[in-house]
């Protein structure tokens, strides 16, 4: 993953396994950890992508690494900068952005090449009576995702783009849906979201982790906790790392960080 993102020497240090601290550790050790967390904001999108997505890469080998857009927002002051850079990388077919069903503004970002590999992997596992039906996956890669860069596509446009590869059949769309490569929109069944196959368990972890994280902080007296202590906790209902959820909730505006003489404090902004 690092080969694609081209992380700097700073990000290499950040990717090393962090040394966990105990309650008896000195304030200087806690502050070092805090500075490491805050320093991620100095990196580019590609470096942040490389660091944050490692969690998903190691826990879910069936899904290629990805990052949430909210995690990118957590690391910069100007969200317009993130949106602009994402748009450029989308046009250059370096990244692909997907709408998630975990929240109204939730989006995942994955390297375009990784998404191609994800499609290849799932197509090999899909059973079909006719070998020729597998051609739809090649058409999808060659004619659909290279032309349609937005998160959604209409049924008519999907069929039109697929037909550039060969004679179109109705069951081809069903095959893509069953593979988890596209999903129907609830509000308009004639429109599909582009999707990441095999992502269901991860989305469940994201949703449950958010609820558990916020519930824990909301039950504290001042709805806040030191970052260094918070990072040592483990969530019961999410296999994802605490930092994954921290950056997600900070970027989505649910949490904020505040520098204090004893270290960084994380507090709830909204439930």
From TrEMBL:
InterPro entries: STK19-like. It holds the Pfam family Stk19. Residues 1-31 are annotated as: Disordered. It comes from the Eukaryota. Belongs to the STK19 family. This is Serine/threonine-protein kinase 19. The lineage of its organism: Eukaryota, Viridiplantae, Streptophyta, Embryophyta, Tracheophyta.
